[in-house]
Amino acid sequence: MIVSVAQDTGGVRDAGKWITAASPEYTVLIDDQHSVTRLYNMVNVPTGVWINEKGRIVRPNEVAYVDNRYKGMHGIDASEYLDAVRDWVAKGESSTYVLSESEMRQRLAPQNPDWSLAAAEFGLAEYLYHEGKVREAIPHYKEAQRLNPDNWNYKRQAWALSDAEKDYGTSFMKEVQKLQGKPYYPPRQLKKGDKQN
Amino acid sequence: MRKSILCLLIVALTSVAAIAATPTVVFDQVATKVTAAPSALLNPDNLWITLEDLKRATGFVVKPQGICRGELCFPIPKARRNAFLSKQGRVTWFNLSEFARLTKQPAAMDKENALWYFGPRPAEQNGYVESLIAPDFTLPDINGQKHSLSDYRGKKVLLITWASW
């Protein structure tokens, strides 16, 4: 079962055309308050989480490309991830990709006070934006970005709703260049004990 | 001279109006308009609301054992009771900002819009790290039909987020 969730403040206005074009046979939902980002402490898209039949997470947040159209930018091969998903579907809990509880807890990052406050500032900005107070939302988007600088969802969503150069003095490409070789996505540890994949 | 005094008066009245505007509280992602506090309690660091608004906006009520919602109760430190509760005339006011500080609940505020946003407490947010149970959510599809993650209990779920941006 695939549950795909658009993290789009603009809701159907922004995500709708992509859903219509894809004409998916799986469930696609629209999250105009970035609730899933907050609930699962996600920092980027696409992020995948594996959940078993009992509703328990068996693999937490990780980059989850399912094709290679952007591989030239980030170097992540989708086929390895798709093979892992197929292995889990076929073998269930005995799949080599299902993580133990201890490994899960090592990978899950608990919220800290700054991230929680960042989520509140982002939520307030989203509320103002939905109320039509677009300009008044900007200082709160900026504060969310300052408090949780590793959260690309906070940055990219805010920039997309605005003129990023004019209102934030930056752009997505400029920020990626600032990484200076540091990976845009946290390295994926696909197999148990993998350092990087 | 008369013009300057008039300007000063307008500026003063405008800033009082900005603070005294009907506040909006967003709690658990639900917005509620609440009654503005009397001038003695107006303060950008503290949002005072009536006990009725406290219940309406947050579901919490004041009980002898503390501030409670269902089974969850936060005792008020006796020595600091005045920081949480204030009687003004016949009305008792509750300091929601101080309560957020007590419970380590993150709060963001927009002064111009008299808007107060209270997010989930980190302890609440981190519950799934201990239980490993996937946090549930309910969201609409493109046709507005609501789906909950828990609807798919009994099946393996690959949850994937994406965005148009």
Describe the structure using short key phrases.
heterodimer; A: 197 residues; mainly alpha; Serine Threonine Protein Phosphatase 5, Tetratricopeptide repeat; 2 domains; two-stranded parallel ribbon; two-stranded antiparallel ribbon; 4 strands; 48% helix; B: 165 residues; alpha+beta; 4-stranded mixed beta sheet; 3-stranded antiparallel beta sheet; 6 helices
The end-to-end span of chain A amounts to: 25 Å
Largest sheet, strands/sense/barrel of chain A:
2 strands, parallel
Oligomer: heterodimer
**pLDDT averaged residue by residue of chain B:** 90
Residue share in helices of chain A? 40-55%
Number of strands of chain A: 4
Strand order of the largest sheet of chain B: 2-1-10-9
Q: Strand content of the residues of chain A, in percent?
A: 5-15%
Largest two-chain interface: A-B, 77 and 49 residues
Strand order within the widest sheet of chain A? Answer: 1-2
- The topology string of helices and strands of chain A comes to EHEHEEHHHHHHHH
Largest sheet of chain B: 4 strands, mixed
Q: What is the global morphology of chain A?
A: globular
Number of domains of chain A: 2
Q: Give the H and E element order of chain B.
A: HEEEHEEEHEEHEEHHEEE
